[in-house]
Design a protein that fits this description.
Rossmann fold, alpha/beta, 35% helix, binds iron/sulfur cluster, two-stranded antiparallel ribbon
């Protein structure tokens, strides 16, 4: 497969310069490098600018309700254990409305890869505060500054026991491609939080802000070091923060593999009639 073979023919209508273009390209490159054919890929997205991704990557695709990507992705993976399931959503979608689902997907270690477009605002609705907006940030919905504490997704995921936690940046697209490949290859739930500047409504959090602060990690840090790096708001480290082995959800449920083996479900249907 070549990246261009994942194009659907639809032209993305993101704002010129939006970080979503880099995520789009990195996804296609990662899929091509891994030779994942479109009929073996399910793309799930939430609501928001990131949610449009399902229109632009050739695959089975479903745009879900706001914050509800994880239950849908979980169902798809359980019914189709051999399918690659890739989820795209925004930081408002995943860490606001969907944070409960996120935590339970991590606990289950369902084998899906979740790419979160982290731009610190609700971009599609023209720039309201998100759970990732730092305290004091002035937005349309917080004219006197954000008063709530900020969610740190990496620390949240590590504290909940996520088996793969990484951070990328759309200004480092080759690095991001590699992270997406690692996330897909990981056997279990993979969270990839991606700094994705919203160039239209993102306030100060544009490319200049990240270019000054983003640094690549040369190796995976120890747990304690990972927490410190994730908390650092000035030096923004990208790379894999945490990875370990734990059987994914579908492997811990033998009834799922029995269902897949059965194929002919007539006996199952008979049991209900
Ligand atoms: Fe990208 Fe922001 Fe435009 Fe949405 S509003 S397409 S996130 S730049």
């Amino acid at each position: 497969m070549k990246p261009v073979e994942y194009n659907t023919g639809k032209i993305p209508n993101w704002c010129p310069g939006c970080g979503n273009f880099a995520i789009w390209n990195s996804i296609k490159k990662a899929l091509a490098n891994l030779d994942i054919e479109p009929h073996k890929l399910a793309l799930v997205s939430g609501i928001g600018c990131s949610g449009k991704m399902v229109n632009y990557v050739r695959s089975y695709a479903l745009q879900t309700l706001h914050g509800r990507t994880m239950p849908i992705a979980t169902g798809i993976k359980l019914a189709n254990p051999d399918m690659t399931v890739l989820v795209n959503g925004g930081d408002g979608d995943g860490y606001g409305m969907g944070v409960g689902h996120l935590i339970h997907a991590i606990r289950r270690n369902i084998n899906v890869t979740y790419i979160v477009h982290h731009n610190k605002v609700y971009g599609l609705t023209t720039g309201q505060a998100a759970p990732t907006s730092p305290e004091g940030t002035i937005t349309k919905s917080t004219p006197f500054g954000v008063v709530d504490a900020t969610i740190n997704p990496l620390i949240l995921a590590m504290a909940t026991g996520a088996t793969f936690v990484a951070r990328g940046y759309t200004g480092e697209s080759e690095h991001l491609t590699d992270l997406i490949m690692q996330g897909i290859n990981h056997k279990g739930f993979a969270l990839i939080d991606v700094f994705q500047p919203c160039v239209t409504f993102g306030g100060q959090y544009k490319y200049e802000y990240y270019d000054e602060r983003v640094v690549k990690m040369d190796k995976m840090p120890s747990h304690d070091e990972a927490v410190k790096l994730a908390a650092d708001q000035e030096k923004l480290s990208i790379g894999v923060y945490s990875q370990y082995e734990r059987a994914p959800y579908e492997a811990r449920h033998p009834e799922i593999s029995r269902t897949v083996e059965m194929k002919d479900v007539s006996k199952l249907i008979e049991a209900f009639i």
